[in-house]
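User: Sequence in, structure out. Go.
Assistant: Echoing your sequence, followed by the structure tokens.
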Amino acid sequence: MKDILLKTEKLSKSFSNGGVMQHVLKNIDVNLYKGDFTVIMGASGAGKSTLMYALSGMDKPTLGTITFGDETISDLDSDGLAVFRRNHCGFVFQQIYLIDSMSVMDNVLAAGLLVNKDKKALCANAEALFAAVDISKETQKKFPTQLSGGEAQRVGIVRALINHPEILFADEPTGALNSKTGLDVLDTLTKFNEMGQSVVMVTHDMSSARRGNRILYLKDGTILGECDLGKYTPGDKKRHETLSQFLCDMGW
């Protein structure tokens, strides 16, 4: 039996657009489990990123509850949500948002120092993470503008993991990368998941989605269905066929 990491009850999100209410998420009940690589899919406008923002405390739901452990994070104010994100979540986005005036290492340490003031311990953790994603000591001294897209995204993953988050949220992490570089980033996410890191990834790309063991499919703001793919194995044709059939059934 897997441990529940985060759960929602009747989660809803609405926006006013020119005086007309748009209901983006509608009464979503879902559990996220420790150690899973959960993938959120759906057509454009289905509510994928909105759901991720709500789950991660980046945005507050209009109705419903989100619970992390014993804490109802949907009741927190903006300051409380900032503390929750800082202490429990890591984020990887399509746009990487590294600070150009700081070195690669300093970008990572700046994120770490928000939680842990022990710089020596942070440096040791950063070095271990950089080694895990094949970022050399020379590259750690560079500035973001000197990095390739794949290097920058791998640095972004290190920054997201520096505070040992319970959940790593990734929003289209390969969307701005070519296929080879995107594959390297997916390999990195898979590697950390196999080490026990819980991952929630939004994607519209089927090859990226195959990395997940659990697929949630959103349509019109609700979870239309989910698919259990089991543990990822490279070159697994059955996995591809199972996901293809599931997405076809969902009308993707």
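User: And one key feature?
Assistant: Residues 35 and 196 are 5 Å apart (CA to CA).
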